[in-house]
Design brief:
There is one protein chain. Strand 3 and strand 4 form a beta hairpin. Helix content is 48%, strand content 14%. The chain is elongated and about 105 Å long. By secondary structure, the protein is an alpha+beta fold. The protein folds into three domains: 195 residues, no CATH class; 31 residues; 65 residues, no CATH class.
């Protein structure tokens, strides 16, 4: 895929953690390109950087929620390189092997047996040792996850005090790897760039949880193509909807979430009476304001419906005649 397109030289790839493979790092930087990718927890680099959760700096990350409210989060961070962390983890393995061999030696002496030596494990070093490794912790997310865990404390085997002590220091922690120049791209800039990728996750959340598109993991090629097309159209409609809403001159409308807009408009009911005219029961001024801001003239639409309904009724009489 990367070889199929002529990307600009200064392209920065924001990559999902599932594409973290050491062999592919050359692809992400080929031709002067750059990348930002999360380091999986199972990777030795992630394990090495999380051995010490002391942070050397902090910055404020400003974001806008779906209601248009500005929120500021305090982000802690510390930075290292791939080479330094590989060396750190190698030292950890060496110390562990040394302690294990000492235990085996002492036990063998007590039992009068010949000790079996445990050989050292060697870390496979990356050829890109200069890549930056930055560990962040979102303090707001840390507090939120802590509160959620404590709320469920004792509800099952997982939510216990031992697991809380073990896991809570890592709540809100993310480890990123990048080849962006440190002088030009501060840790706060790298974090901000990666957070842009969360719009993809937000979209998937909208597709699965709000729009209720099930069967997204279908194995049938044609079903997948059809579903992909529908999801794409829905995404374009949502993008146009959000653009229209956020540009609204009404503060009330601009600060509603997409879900709130849909719920409020879904409450508008119309009914056709015996005179073949359509009527709309009394609705709130706020709902009318929302519809007007979104370009929907309720009164005009009711007139159109009445005209269409009357035309169909007359055509039916003509056919009977």
């Amino acid at each position: 895929m990367l070889g199929s397109y002529d990307f600009p030289e200064r392209t920065v790839f924001l990559i999902d953690a599932s594409f973290y493979y050491e062999d592919d790092m050359a692809l992400y930087r080929e031709g002067g390109k750059h990348f930002v990718i999360p380091v999986p927890d199972s990777c030795i680099i992630s394990k090495a950087v999380q051995m010490d959760l002391s942070f050397t700096g902090s910055f404020t990350y400003t974001k806008e929620d779906e209601n248009g409210n500005i929120k500021k989060d305090r982000i802690l961070y510390t930075e290292s390189t791939v080479a330094l962390l590989e060396e750190k983890y190698q030292q950890f393995l060496d110390d562990k092997t040394s302690r294990k061999n000492e235990e085996i030696l002492n036990k063998a002496k007590e039992q009068g047996e010949k000790p079996k030596k445990i050989y050292e494990r060697k870390v496979a070093k990356s050829i890109y040792g200069d890549d930056r490794i930055i560990m962040y912790r979102d303090e707001d997310m840390h507090d939120k996850m802590t509160a959620e865990f404590l709320e469920q404390l004792g509800s099952d085997d997982f939510h216990c005090e031992d697991n809380f002590k073990k896991l809570s220091p890592y709540f809100g922690v993310i480890v990123l790897r990048s080849n962006l120049e440190k002088k030009k791209y501060l840790a706060s800039v790298v974090y901000g760039d990666y957070k842009k990728r969360w719009r993809i996750e937000t979209h998937y959340n909208f597709v699965e949880n709000l729009m209720r598109f099930y069967g997204l993991k279908t194995d049938d090629y044609y079903s997948m193509q059809g579903l992909s097309f529908i999801v794409l159209v829905v995404g374009q409609i949502k993008a146009a909807f959000n653009k229209r809403q956020k540009s609204s001159s009404s503060r009330y409308v601009a600060h509603l979430s997409t879900k709130e807009c849909l719920i409020k408009t879904a409450r508008i009911k119309i009914s056709q009476h015996q005179n073949k005219k359509w009527y709309m029961p009394v609705t709130t001024k706020k709902t009318v304001e929302l519809m007007n801001e979104m370009g929907v003239d309720l009164a005009a639409d009711l007139k159109k419906l009445t005209f269409i309904s009357a035309s169909r009724y007359n055509r039916g009489l003509n056919r009977i005649t």
